TrEMBL record:
Protein species of origin: Salvia divinorum
Its EC number(s): 2.4.1.207
Gene3D superfamilies linked to this entry: 2.60.120.200
Descriptive protein name: Xyloglucan endotransglucosylase/hydrolase
Subcellular localization(s) per the UniProt record: Secreted, Cell wall; Secreted, Extracellular space, Apoplast
Lineage: superkingdom: Eukaryota
Phylogenetic placement of the source organism: Eukaryota, Viridiplantae, Streptophyta, Embryophyta, Tracheophyta
Gene responsible for this protein: XTH30
Biological role stated in the UniProt entry: Catalyzes xyloglucan endohydrolysis (XEH) and/or endotransglycosylation (XET). Cleaves and religates xyloglucan polymers, an essential constituent of the primary cell wall, and thereby participates in cell wall construction of growing tissues.
Active site per the UniProt annotation: 104 (nucleophile), 108 (proton donor)
UniProt keyword terms in alphabetical order: Apoplast, Cell wall, Cell wall biogenesis/degradation, Disulfide bond, Glycosidase, Glycosyltransferase, Hydrolase, Secreted, Signal, Transferase
PTM: Contains at least one intrachain disulfide bond essential for its enzymatic activity.
CDD domains: GH16_XET
Length: 331
């Protein structure tokens, strides 16, 4: 039986996306252009936006507000055909306000050569901790360029959960040992597509091929939930008490026993790099890491899958790119 069918059977009892009870927003109400507005196309009903990458530039959008914790979500469809060197990102950050000590929560999709699947990674950075790095990388059980799937980031004072559709794929609980590395300052929400030829595919060996331009990433069903704040407001966070309480009361703000089983299945099947098991970078695992014996066994090659543990080619974890590159043109 195909693995994708097995997976669908496995999650057949899992709550549908409607269980999230999401209120979607129009583009003009929730976002504005970040760069290269000539490569940003909105739908006629203002409920969807397409970001283009061509030989002139990539493109990006930014939320109209900053949020002190929140739930950020979008249904996304990736570019198709040859996508090597391309990165599509959906993330929260405050780098534009706190340049030297910014926080960031990333979902980054990494393109590939024709016939090879998209991959993606999640990153957690707090207080400028990009040099320490908290990256994980995964494959998907579907082709993200064929149909829309929902990708979400839940961020509370106590935990961070990344979702693909209704499936939690990563949970980071706040640990006292993280200190300022746990993201805690107000963040904007971004979506971008850009040329990452220097690192995104086979360590930079495969570049963007502009004979296939334009590359189009489509976003719809935009969701921004949280407490809207002034990022440099000096008032204590208690002014968001009610909104944070409402956020934490959401069904998807916790990992139930059923969701934990789904998350463990996904990670054991599709995760191919985790910093928690990278004993080269971290001889002592970071404090928030929880040792899972099955994960440790499958990621015994310096945090990477050993040969024969995953289908397809092995990826390389721990690679990092300059955030400023998101705002650069392809030339």
């Amino acid at each position: 039986m195909p693995s994708c069918l097995l997976f669908l059977l496995f999650i057949s009892g899992f709550p549908s996306s409607t269980a999230f009870n999401l209120t979607t927003l129009t583009f003009s109400r929730s976002f504005s252009p970040l760069f290269s507005d000539f490569n940003i196309k909105t739908s006629h009903h203002d409920k969807a936006v397409s970001l283009l990458l061509n030989r002139l530039s990539g493109s990006g959008i930014i939320s109209s507000d900053y949020y002190n914790y929140g739930f950020f979500s979008a249904s996304i469809k990736m570019p198709s055909r040859y996508t090597a060197g391309i990165v599509v990102a959906f993330y929260a950050s405050n780098v534009d306000t706190f340049e030297k000590n910014h926080d960031e929560l990333d979902i980054e999709f990494l393109g590939n050569v024709k016939g090879h699947a998209w991959r993606f990674q999640t990153n957690v950075y707090g207080n400028g901790s990009v040099s320490r790095g908290r990256e994980e990388r995964y494959r998907l059980w579907f082709d993200p360029s064929k149909v829309f799937h929902r990708y979400s980031i839940l961020w509370t004072p106590f935990n961070i959960i990344f979702y693909v559709d209704e499936i939690p794929i990563r949970h980071v609980g706040r640990h006292a040992g993280m200190q300022g590395d746990y993201p805690s300052k107000p963040m904007s929400v971004y979506a971008t597509i850009w040329d990452a030829s220097s690192w995104a595919t086979d360590g930079g060996k495969r570049k963007v091929d502009y004979r296939h331009e334009p590359f189009i990433a489509e976003f719809r069903d935009l969701v921004l939930q949280g407490c809207v704040v002034d990022p440099i407001d000096q008032l204590p966070s208690s002014n968001c008490t009610a909104e944070i309480a409402a956020l934490m009361a959401l069904d998807y703000s916790t990992i139930t026993a059923h969701r934990r089983k789904s998350m463990q299945w996904f990670r054991q099947k599709y995760m191919y790099y985790s910093y928690c098991y990278d004993n080269v970078r971290y001889p002592v695992p970071p404090p928030e890491c929880t040792d899972v014996p099955l994960e440790r066994e499958m990621l015994s090659n310096g945090g990477r899958r050993t040969e024969g543990k995953v289908s397809g080619r092995r990826g390389k974890g721990g690679e990092r790119r300059s955030k400023a590159a998101k705002h650069q043109t392809a030339r």
